[in-house]
Amino acid sequence: MKATLSVKKGVLLAMALSSVMMPSAHALTVYTAGPGSLAKNLASGFEKQTGIKVDIFQATTGKVMARLEAEQANPQADVLISASWDTAEDLHTRGWLLPYQSANAENVPADLKSADYVAQGVSALGIVWNTKSGTPEPKEWQDLTTNAYKDKVTTPDPALSGASLDLLIGLQNGMGDKAWALFDALKKNGMVVSGPNAQAVTPVMQGAKAAVFGAVDYVSYGNISQGESLKVIFPASGTVIAPRPMMILKSTRHADEAKAFVDYVLSEEGQTMVADAWLMPVRGDVKAKRPLLNALNVLPTKSDGASTRSDILKRFNAIFSL
To answer: Could you give the CA distance from residue 297 to residue 312 in angstroms, rounded to a whole number?
Structure first.
């Protein structure tokens, strides 16, 4: 009888321990803009390490934010990864974020993290040039205003891309009124304002156009690795970077799991996946596959007080009659 009781106690203890060790049955929900393959790899690696399943909603930053807003009565997302730093600053101001500083953020530069968000990775904007276009290799933004590039340049729409709007601000900060003379010259030379980044790059990749003014670099690095005849050029006069903020929503019902996911993305394994997606890892101790911040002349994207982001967008749209 005692032996039977002992066995029963042992079984109950084993069951209790297994219930503690087993991950929760629910899935963590991550909304992300940017590379879908990176999101899937991070979700898979995290699930393999923790046993916690991750549901991914991947779209443009605009669509992700629209979904967040629409779900406010019944929030679904636990973690948000945006392609625009403005998103994090806005949600911080609105009180939507759960403060968390991961121990794995120790090697992340101070300007790429705050009390409640941290960069997942960083991209930069540059000229993407088709090396088989028959045009001279551009070195500076101004080169795209020459006759060789007449009707051969595209640019992402800054109304759809926060990074493209940052480039307008950065160039205004760096060049003053000469930036607007540059945009006017680009318009007169036939530059076409396309949709999002991919829509601007595709005709250049296909050879219908020769260059993109202000393309997000990691997409083209990925295309180059697959054999496309493209080159990414960062003008010495300066460009802007686009950190990709990662944050936990205050409305999450799975805070511990969300924190564990942020920890994983910032781990050496997670940051290696970020580097494999041709982004700059934010940890200084993880190797990249492309140029890093120290190779760029980074222009500031803070408003100088003379104009707001909406004012700058309106001025750009007026030139291109958008």
So the answer is: 22
